[in-house]
Amino acid sequence: MTIEQCRAARALLGWSTIELATAAKLGIATVKRFETGQQVQSLSVATMRASLDSAGIQFIDPGEVSRKAGAGVRLR
């Protein structure tokens, strides 16, 4: 998950960084560090992505079939 995908996913859900942190059972500082490009553990990123996925976000990876073939997110 990229920083941009994380922010876009939160926007689609109407979630704040606090809501993502709560859903992922992570500290708010971890979410904020990730979204500002700072180093976080890969397990934390995977946990955030899984929480967003569980909330209805579908991740589109680069090269994956999509209209523009770019990385992104969408609601299922």
From TrEMBL:
<dbReference type="GO" id="GO:0003677">
    <property type="term" value="F:DNA binding"/>
</dbReference>
<dbReference type="InterPro" id="IPR010982">
    <property type="entry name" value="Lambda_DNA-bd_dom_sf"/>
</dbReference>
<protein>
    <submittedName>
        <fullName>XRE family transcriptional regulator</fullName>
    </submittedName>
</protein>
